[in-house]
Amino acid sequence: MSKIAFIFPGQGSQKVGMGAEFVANDEASKAFYDQADQALNIKLSTLMLEGPQEELTLTYHAQPALLTTGVMIASKLMEAGITPDYTAGHSLGEYGSFVIAGSLSFEEAVKIVHKRGLYMNEAVPAGQGAMAAILGMDEEPLKEVCAEITNNGDLVQLANLNCPGQIVISGTKAGVEKASQLAKEKGAKRAIPLDVSGPFHSELMKDAAIKLEKEIEQVEISQPNIPIISNVHAGILEDVESIKKEMVEQVYSPVQWERDVRKMLECGVTTFIECGPGKVLSGLVKKIDRSVKTYCVYDIATFEEVVKELKG
């Protein structure tokens, strides 16, 4: 029997108007947005629905905003009788998995990802870190490129292993620039600088991880009732301690998204439902295996399409 995975996008997918149709037409959906506002004591929902985009894109706003929309959509799908057999998220998106798997309450998750965003924002002053997508180069040669630049004094490392031929690097501004140039000299097709506020998923985020670890110790985390695929090692997170460890390590460790998807394929997943704005993860899944079904649920029309196809 085919299995379903819910997948949750990470930072970069946020956009003004995210979830607006659900909120306007459904009290239960609106309740998630109201709860996020109350938990953070800020008008996050106004930023999500009205903008401005620049404010919404700030790390400490984008993270709880994406979590809120993703969990709201996933909850609506589950109410309609579509339950995931597995779940995974890209970076920040992993917190959506923690919530729908029953390991973390929505309110606690909103608070944690807001602090996660603040700590990541504080870890490296603006302009000192960078990220870039390297296209058309395999993992091992790109790892060698990063090691060469790092050994010469400018830290840079693999950050997101997204799909064949697409790997994001992260580190100091100089390190990323030098590694991008060297990668192109060694055969990479393109190096695209990313519009991000910090060197996420690099060793430069360790201070943020240390601060976050103290917060996590105060939070009640439960045994998951749906298997969660780990960003850090692409295995299954099966207990409370492994989830706590994951929350800390994934701040500065590479996101193993290609391996995550391959793990779910191994486990029999044939249908991936992306919960939240955008289609980034669905596109990556298709680049890993074109034979699987992917759906993106971000408005009422896409929600109804999935329910019709999967529930008949």
UniProtKB/TrEMBL annotation:
A molecular function GO annotation: [acyl-carrier-protein] S-malonyltransferase activity
SMART domains on file: PKS_AT (SM00827)
InterPro entries noted in UniProt: Ac_transferase_dom_sf, Acyl_transferase_dom, Acyl_Trfase/lysoPLipase, Mal-CoA-ACP_Trans/PKS_FabD, Malonyl_CoA-ACP_transAc, Malonyl_CoA-ACP_transAc_FabD, Malonyl_transacylase_ACP-bd
Catalysed reactions, semicolon-separated: holo-[ACP] + malonyl-CoA = malonyl-[ACP] + CoA
A single BP term in Gene Ontology: fatty acid biosynthetic process
Alphabetical UniProt keywords: Acyltransferase, Transferase
One Pfam family matching this protein: Acyl_transf_1
UniProt domain Malonyl-CoA:ACP transacylase (MAT): residue ranges: 7-298
Gene Ontology cellular component annotations, sorted alphabetically: cytosol
EC number: 2.3.1.39
Keyword Transferase (UniProt): yes
Active site per database record: 91, 201
Family the entry assigns: Belongs to the fabD family.
Protein name: Malonyl CoA-acyl carrier protein transacylase
